[in-house]
Amino acid sequence: MSQPRRIPRRRTWTALTLPALVCVLAACSGGPADDAAAPASSASPTPSGPPGTLFDDFHYSGPDDPSLAAHGWEVRTGGGGPGIKDTWSTAGAGFPSDTTAQGGRVLRLQASTDGTKQGTKQVEVQSTGTALFTGTFAARVHLSDKPTSGRNGDHVVETFYPISAADTSTNYSELDYEYMPNGGWGSVGPQLDTTSWYKADPPDRVTHALKQHLEGWHIMMITAMNGKVTYSLDGKELFTSSGKYVPREKMDIHFSNWLIDLPFNGVPRTWDMKVNWFYYKAGEAVSQADVQKAVDGFYSAGTSYINTVPKS
């Protein structure tokens, strides 16, 4: 991409924080497997499993489910960029049933706008508990080429990325997948950018653009090992960075759906991005086949969440 990612981010701790502190001590398990309107899940011990592994299938009842915070996730609110600044809201985050998803449930990120800042809601779910460094990052993500409702034409950005907790860090690290079905910053979509960052300000990064319609489900993988970062989509390698464009510190995971600008107003519209599951393996390069095998094993065992990543 041709523009800086964001202004310095501000962590906004919501009412979820208190349950999070309580539940982290108890290492709560995943939410219910029923409807999104089901009651919040009760606390139970985190299951044991393969070392250095984080897996979540996002079986939660809603943004206020205590297990969501206990498992190290928060729905962003408050100020800052990117996109339409200060429009982050929990309203677009949900966990509905979905027959196209493995396990039948998803994290849905719905951005909405009527073309005005006041009528715009962007959405982001970010990790807060376990910082991740080298290894394999993978997510099954559903991308949209057109709005769920309303007129097409927005410069929407559907994203999955690990990133440093602070943009001002001297060891700043960020690894991006950004899908822009209608383009943005002067480019014509559809376009999937894969970008490795060294600094946020002034922006210093290397990037690759895939000009292709990508409506539907995809497995996005980032392998950061041995001084090299490789981005792969559905098992096909897209881009590799090395040298200074590799992780230099631990990162959080972010899924977000946001708008670059507001090209027209007066017509309400919504854009959906969905996440089926997230998987991370610390310090190892894992093939897509082996990632899927591990994920299948978790689903077969009824394991919605596991975190055996070392704390230090």
Number of helices, counting only DSSP H or I runs of 4 residues or more: 3
Q: Helicity level, as a percent range?
A: under 10%
Shape: globular
Count the E strands.
16
The average pLDDT score comes to: 88
Low-confidence stretches: 6-46
In angstroms, what is the radius of gyration? 18 Å
Distance between the termini: 33 Å
Strand content: 25-35%
Estimated structural class: mainly beta
Task: List the topology elements.
Elements: H1 17-26, E1 53-56, H2 66-70, E2 73-75, E3 93-94, E4 107-113, E5 123-127, E6 135-143, E7 156-163, E8 174-180, E9 191-199, E10 204-210, E11 216-225, E12 228-233, E13 236-242, E14 252-259, E15 269-282, H3 288-301, E16 305-307
Antiparallel strand pairs: 1-15, 1-16, 2-5, 3-4, 4-15, 5-14, 6-11, 6-15, 7-8, 7-14, 8-9, 9-10, 11-12, 12-13
Explain how this protein is built:
The chain is mainly beta and 312 residues long. The chain has helices spanning 17-26, 66-70, 288-301; strands at 53-56, 73-75, 93-94, 107-113, 123-127, 135-143, 156-163, 174-180, 191-199, 204-210, 216-225, 228-233, 236-242, 252-259, 269-282, 305-307. The relative contact order is 0.23.
Provide keyphrases for this structure.
seven-stranded antiparallel beta sheet, nine-stranded antiparallel beta sheet, 3 helices, mainly beta, 312 residues, 16 strands
